[in-house]
Amino acid sequence: MQSKLKKHFSTQTLYHKIHKAISHSRPIERHEINSIQQNIDEYMKFYRNNANHNIFPKLHFLEHHCTQWIDRWGFGMGMHGEQGVELVHSSIKKLEHQTLGMWRAEDKLKVMMKSHLTQVCPTLHYLLPSAVKRGNKVTVGLQKWPTSFYYLYKASLSSRLTQAYGKKLTNIKLIELNS
Fold first, then answer.
1. Rounded-to-integer distance, Cα 28 and Cα 26, Å
2. In angstroms, how far is the first alpha carbon of the chain from the final one?
3. Which pTM does this prediction carry?
4. Could you tell me if 140 and 129 are in contact, meaning their C-beta atoms sit under 8 angstroms apart?
5. Strand partners for 60
6. What per-residue confidence (pLDDT) applies to 148?
């Protein structure tokens, strides 16, 4: 009984290290990836020696593909695990509920997609129209991006596109919107 309990806590401790390191949506530095891989290797060695089960697909992914994915994209697995999928599903359900009063399916879909996109990419809030009340009228204008934010976003976009396409893209242009 004592050894079974010890094995259980060892398994949980080893898995907790991995879970804490990868189950989030924050950036992960390259030097942290080696530590994550060592924790995964230690966990898998312990699992193979003590479990009476075969390696199932999630463990295969964890062992062989997880650190490659993190290295490629530079972020934790938070939005790509089950919790992330459930979060997206929940937010879509809320958006569907908010658009119940709309008749046209195209309008519903457009509102849902815009809302979802601004939820997952908060930088787009700067592009959303801002309502300005003038007398009895409400006019809609576009907010201006702060210059520093504009260049930071452009640099971020450029590096993500370079990573995705494998070559440096030099002719990226973002249009700054004025109100």
1. 6
2. 71
3. 0.48
4. yes
5. none
6. 44
